Amino acid sequence: MNVYFLLEGKSTETEVYPKWLDYLVPELTQVSNYKDVTHNNYYLFSSNGIPSIYTDLIAAIQDINQINKYKYLVICLDADELTVDERISELYENIKNEEQLNKTKLKIIVQNRCIETWFLGNRYFYTKNPHNHQKFIEYSKFYNVYNNDPELMKKPDTFKDTDSKFHVAYLRAMFTEKGMIEKRRLIYNKSYSKEIQKKSYLAELKKRIDNTPTHLKTFTNFINFCTQLRSEISHSR
């Protein structure tokens, strides 16, 4: 079993996905070159956002067909301002006239609205009665991600950017408030995601979807796929 991961993001995803895969599918070992896969390996390629990922996807299909060693090609990308179905349709539209996969199966993981939306699902990091960081106080009054599904959160009218950018700002504020309460330095940005890489952070997100299965459906899709990979590896022995 070999898996090729094509990620939209160039920083956060390349740090977080390998760590999470270590916890979720420890049978898989990462390789640094797509040609080096042998048995139970995965290769991870980071794109440079949209639309670059569509060009990289065509190249990935060509590489995969050439060596014929991958069972899955997994594409991980943000929905951003589209719906999940719209993002998937756009992806297929960009490759419909290009070379298609031979025997490799395609799996699409849409992060709705972005990967930071998933991170907002950690209830332990959410302060129920904030009193330190003004932005977090404002954001939590606008939309409580502890009680409500982060994937359904829109931006406030006063926020002069996209919904996805608001989710990132909310996460940063949530971290700052938590750090101020615990008297430690807690930060999040695109190039620094140490806390999120921890097994305990992932465990809290899994607890969220176990306790509230209607929330974070695209994260659930990712978790279910990892469970499926483990099962397939086990049955192939």
How would you concisely characterize the structure shown here?
With 237 residues, this protein is of the alpha/beta class.
User: What's the gyration radius in Å?
Assistant: 18 Å
Instruction: Classify the oligomer.
Output: single chain
Largest sheet: 5 strands, parallel
Give the second-level CATH assignment, the architecture of the largest domain. 3-Layer(aba) Sandwich
Class based on secondary structure composition and strand pairing: alpha/beta
Envelope shape: globular
What do the pLDDT scores average to? Answer: 96
User: What is the strand arrangement across the widest sheet?
Assistant: 2-3-1-4-5
* Secondary-structure element order, N to C: EHEEHEHEHHHHH
State the total count of DSSP E strands.
5
Percent range of helical residues: 40-55%
Total discrete domains: 2
How does this model look, in words?
The protein is of the alpha/beta class. The protein folds into two domains: 2-113 and 217-235, Rossmann fold (3-Layer(aba) Sandwich), CATH 3.40.50; 117-211, no CATH class. Helix content is 45%, strand content 12%. The chain has eight helices and five strands. It has a five-stranded parallel β-sheet, sandwiched between helices. Strand 4 (72-78), helix 3 and strand 5 (105-111) form a beta-alpha-beta unit. Helix 5 packs across helix 6 (163-182). The protein is globular, with a radius of gyration of 18 Å. The protein starts with a strand and ends with a helix.
Structure keywords:
single chain; 237 residues; alpha/beta; Rossmann fold; 2 domains; five-stranded parallel sheet; 8 helices; 45% helix
